[in-house]
Amino acid sequence: MPPAVPPDPAAAPGLVVYGRRACGVCRRAEAQVRRELRRTAPWRRPRVTLVDVDAAGLADRYGVRVPVVVLDGVEVSELELAPGVVRAALRRSRRRG
Q: Is the pTM higher than 0.85?
């Protein structure tokens, strides 16, 4: 998982997956996000940013609760990512926006 910017979820438009490089659960969450986005219309797919919390200096903020998935500044999941969570969050986000 490469380091990415911005580290502040509120400043990141789109979808951000916070995790760790050597984290199997984080890799599974990233794969789940990508699977769910493949089932979303291309023009509705948010930009996905991967953030390594250790490389980005966010280890204190996220501790052991990675992966954390954030959509348009709102946390939608932490730890295990259940199927359908990202698509449901996208639907809620469209209703808000």
A: no
